[in-house]
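Hi support team,

I'm opening this ticket because the web form for multi-chain structure prediction keeps timing out on my end. I have pasted the exact lines I submitted so you can reproduce it. The total is 519 residues across two entries, so I didn't expect it to be a heavy job. Is there a limit I'm missing, or should I split the entries? Thanks in advance, R.K.
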Amino acid sequence: MTALLRLVGTGGVIAYRALFNWTTPAMFVGTLLVGPLFQLLFFAYLGRQLGVADDGFYITGNAVLAASLACVFGGTMAVSNERRFGTLGHVLLSPRSRTAVFLGRVLPYAANGLLIAVTTMSAASLLLGLRVPLDALPGLLLTLAVAALACGFFGLTLGAIGLRFRDVWLVSNVSVALLLLLTGVNVPAAGLPAWMRVTGELLPITHAAEAARRLVAGDGFRAAAPQLAAELAIAATYAVLAALLLKVFEAESRRRASLDTL
Amino acid sequence: MRTLRMIAVGALLHAKQLSRSPFEIATALIVPVVQATLAVYLFRAGGEPGRLLEAAVGAGLMGVWSSVLFGSGGAIQNQRWQGTLEMIMLAPRPPALVVLPITLATALTGTYAMVATLAWGRLLYGIPLTFADPLAFAVAVPGCIIGLGMFGLLLASTFVLLRNANALTNTLEYPIWLVSGMLVPITALPGWTGPIAAVLPTTWGARAVREAATGSGPVWPSLGVCLAISLACLVLGAIMMTHVERRARAAATLALA
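Hello R.K., no limit was hit. The queue was backed up. Here is the completed structure from your submission:
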């Protein structure tokens, strides 16, 4: 058990450092901290001007969404960068469980996503003047962590698809754009058609954003718990789906000798 | 005349090259449409169904800006990765004249975003494409695109100086959408953003296109200011590009990322 935890934890951190050796503090701050903050401000001002919802709605929703960029792309990179750097074959030759190896990789991305979400929410609350009840903070932190984890596993699922389809970045880019539209973060769910609402229910962020909004509104953890549980179930579902797809596509790529095909 | 021909042929060449990337095409096909859909539902949720044309036009302009931003930001880096940067810089023409077609091509491919969002809005949401001044709209859109292409040259030359240009391009998308009033009126923003908006060609370009579509004001002065600022950007970009090229040659760092 200790060996498995070490594989998941230490393996994930080492892979994170290796696959992101090209990044710099400027890139991190510009892309992952400042970018989501401006995205939040854009929608907050637009929503304010159109009278769709108050600042709290946009701050909370977009703070949860802020984790998605790092986690979805990170999860995708966890698989596709191995292929790009020519090291995927070495990983798949490992005698250890590849499921554990890849699932473990999501943890650093989720931690990163949590940091981004917390930073975005704090900065936006200061700039736009949102007051969050102190007793809601632990629940809010948990909600953001679960959302980041769900986005990470969602990204890993997309990364697994990348073992079969070459243009995985296209899938990631479109998925991130769709999260903006379908998760009810910027348009209240009631304003969306039924099929969009149903699709949104199956995506990460939707339930976490709702849970976070209840916590910020001061409704208490009990009111947010069902939505939080739903987000956790979404995270677990994507984790299982990612593990399954990785297994199937690994076998497929070995059979077709297409492992390193770019 | 030869210079204009070179710019036109260069822009066409780079537009063709951009059109060979399945990733670029598919992203350009889908993302603006998603943004237009988001804008339409936001305006509907806000009880502003009468402003849906404004939403579609705004979303289209956002797409044009994204194309210019990422295209110009990556212009030099892409040539470097393709191994063609040295050849471009060796051309017996000022470097700005060689890079300008690249940034114009990115703006040109960005026009798709405008066409797509309008067509999407018309076909799916029945938004009537009744422009207040169709002729002015037909002039304002290409005028705005040419202006943004020239602004792109300044961005491209600035990004040559920065090792982490990607960080800046990833950051600049939403602020320019916001400050330029592409969807959010500038009057809804804090007062200190006003001077920033006033010096951006994107603000005046977006204003001209919106005025042509909705008839909310005189189009030509806005388009004129957009082109004047863009021209200033072109001159600045050209000076900076020459300076950067000489420095890179002297330091032998042209091919280094």
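A quick check on our side: Residues 1-251 of chain B form one domain. Let us know if the file doesn't open in your viewer.
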